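Quick one: co-fold with zinc ion.
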Amino acid sequence: MLVLQKTTSIRTLYSDYERVEALLNAEDGFNSRNFDLFTVSDLIGREKTLPLLSVHLFLQHNLIKHVNEHKLSRFLTEVSTTYRRDVSYHNDLHGIDVAQMAHLFLVQGGLTQLLELNHLDTLAFLTAAICHDLGHDGYTNAYHVNRVSQRAIAHNDVSVQESYHVAETFKILSKSEANFLDELKPQAFKHIRQRMIGCILATDMAKHASDLASLKQLIDSKGISEGENAHLVLNKENDQSLFKSQQFILETCLHACDVSQQTRPFSTVAKWTYLLFEEFFNQGDLEKTHSLPVSFLCDRETTSIPTMQPGFITGVTLTLFAPLSQIMPSMTEFADSAKENCEKWQAYQEGEREKLVYVKCKQQN
Ligand SMILES: [Zn+2]
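Sure, here it is.
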């Protein structure tokens, strides 16, 4: 790609960054829960969306000076193309959407100050967010395990997709031309790698219940309420306990970011939801073809999408955003928005275009 030619400045590297920057800094832009990624992507072009918005993220958090700019652009372009465009939900747009939410946790939620994060921590958290579903093929872990797929075999049925996403990320970083972290000291790289592995693996829904129980236990034991005593989430006994206590909150927050789409304005929520079900129904079709049990939510003939959303919001989104709002009170509006969306789904009438998801059969393999 032209933009990857020898240039050292990230701003000249992406010639239209200035235009994007104004758009991103507008009201309801990148610093807002109302950020409309679909519209922004239409304006700047799909192939530039993840790289440009990632650059914006790195600039916002003053991370550019710590990395090799030229290699960063190469890395981001490879990440963008490694995400599969034939996958309707778990693609590059979802990656950068989750990263934008991670940014909101850092700035609006005050996670940076709360966890006393240094630049390596922030770099790891945001890069993990951008890459957390890298190379997702549109199927759940259960599907891979049931099919005894190559991915399941490679990862012994343990967090199959998440393990794959981490490995894909570090495979790109292992290429000299894309290793934007290559100027870091080995110990700093190790620190980032540990953080990223933990954060991406924590996006496995199978860990939801146990992580949530640990989070609630932490909040109760430290007497955290509406931001009071929130600093006690850190255990400063020694360097190791500090790292571990920061890591747990970072992992829980990235998991929350991953299931945060229902905290957005309803028009955005509806778009994401139907894209996700397009993927689920495709899996259900394949499960039927291979005489496997059809996974929950994956049967296009028996699933009503609006009917299922309030259960997801109360059972997953709010279970995370409610306790996290105790630690970061400024995140309460996210939980409130999800509650409002719950009511909107209850009254929702699907449009003709949306109904196509129940009959459309996009891919077979
Ligand atoms: Zn995800």
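If it helps, The two ends are 31 Å apart (CA to CA).
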